[in-house]
Amino acid sequence: MATDSRKRQAKREDGRPKTATLADVAKVAGVTSMTVSRVIKGSGYVAPATREVVLRAAQELNYTANLAARALVTGRTGAIAIISGDLNLPYCANIVYLFDSLLSASGYQIHLLHTRGELRDLINSTNSASVDGVIVAGMHHFFEELSSLDRHVIPPCVHVGITKPSQGDYVHVDLRPAVEEALERMLAAGRKRIALVGVGSHLSVDETEIRPQTYISMMQNAGRELEFVSASPRYEVPGPERVNIIKQYIEANGCPDGLLCFNDDIAIQTYRALMDLGYRIPEDVLLVGCDGLPILQYFEPPLSTIAQPMEEMCALAWKFLQNRIATPDAPPQCTNFDAQLIVRKSLQN
Amino acid sequence: MATDSRKRQAKREDGRPKTATLADVAKVAGVTSMTVSRVIKGSGYVAPATREVVLRAAQELNYTANLAARALVTGRTGAIAIISGDLNLPYCANIVYLFDSLLSASGYQIHLLHTRGELRDLINSTNSASVDGVIVAGMHHFFEELSSLDRHVIPPCVHVGITKPSQGDYVHVDLRPAVEEALERMLAAGRKRIALVGVGSHLSVDETEIRPQTYISMMQNAGRELEFVSASPRYEVPGPERVNIIKQYIEANGCPDGLLCFNDDIAIQTYRALMDLGYRIPEDVLLVGCDGLPILQYFEPPLSTIAQPMEEMCALAWKFLQNRIATPDAPPQCTNFDAQLIVRKSLQN
Q1: Burial (CB count <10 Å: 0-12, 13-18, 19+), residue B218
Q2: Residues B143, B214 within the same domain
């Protein structure tokens, strides 16, 4: 097919292949440019027979190659890369979903990047012509690496997430006030053993992570002992296995009466462990997650969580990226949001 | 930047712009082609200074335009479009996640398509050069429309889902045996009022849908009355609103003692409605969902569901698509899987 197309392709006076325009297609099809536009956009009514004539003309003129041709000529691709965590994490799926809605509405396509190889390709810039911009969701270290590179090598990029990058355009959300509010509620309810349930024991020492950081300073200010429940040292552990690890901890150490969970997935796994062991929420133990996953409201009792204003954050990040694409030398664009504690029955006692 | 690139670009003897090769970049950078390849792929160690020299050379030779150039010359883009439902539905997010893993491993990029405009563009074929193939997940009517079009206009495509298309390549999963098994369990447990909870009242009459179809024939064979709980006539209704609709139905009509839910989202919303009204699962009512979402195992009691072998199905669909891209005229490729009932406490009585 590629050979056929080149044979049919018109040559310009300078010898380079001529790109078929809407008008060319309209001329060959014997219709107005408006009709061709309608067929291409799929908007408005076009009689099926007319549509077929237009499509044949577009095919004959190799109009199908235009997206790639446009990328070569204008340097714009109409595509944005999104770099996020795995889509089997509801938090990440929701972010991609929100950007997908925003970008589609602006006529952009989404290219999903996840694998390390793809990230490296992007850093190495050799693929940079394939997208007009990059949205980095949550992958803070990767964003720092990207931002430190030559701006002429890397397409415009913006970061959205709970960590504040040291440079570049970003939309940041601060979890601290909401975490403090959750812990204050547990303290005010007279809970004695308030523990952090998290991914790995590194949580106790990772001072760049706002959740353990806030937990440690709040507990120390209240004169309480620190208690860390490691749901597993590894991120990729399957949920049911995490449930067992949490159950084993509780069976060996007794149950804390207040549990701050690192994220909503862990809150759900902790909930399952507590149910299996016959503990009651909120009577025996208060529980709060973090991410704002809607699913938590359906549990019995409904589970509390810390929500980020994701829709607003994603819309602003997309606005920042569009600005950056239009004005590469504009000053940095930064905004901070506050996360919100959503109090449900699991925190009410 | 586009102007700069064109100025620097070498011309071939026939006057067309010359595409910079790995060897060209290596020559300008004064390194081996292997080193350039390492920098591009991001594999193996390359000293930071060397990497920078290679990247500068690649930039100078406009090597960044190569992806678009390759698409023009070879007709291959290294990208596959995935058409699915919204990513805020866990079922759809999981499908995209699985294909994303498969395609990344094969060196392909994913282009997500959701909006009606994008689908129309694809049908209208004017964008077909932007992807090498299309995976249609669950959107049966759209796949039928695609398959009926001229194969020279539409890129190769494959369908994966619970409906069997009338033509084309597909991976189909049959829900019927698992739905029958769930209903047989309810009948064997002596349940008298077994209802279908679904999206809209059309469920009772849509004979192309296997779930209501199976429900109706099973109930009629058992001499039972049909009962449909419409969780809402519209797909886009928010979850909490569905919970209220289900509660209102139960308050007005009393509670059925067996509930087959159209999908897992509705099963979760039905669970919440039952909890709010003080019903016990499984003592008062048996409950089963459909989709196999892992989250259902974490509820108390754990909720039963009907699972599809998604990993196997997606892997096979991707194999079919690769075959079709390699051999456009090969005979149709079709496979059928059976869904599996996952029995948890919500079905045990």
Answers
A1: buried
A2: no
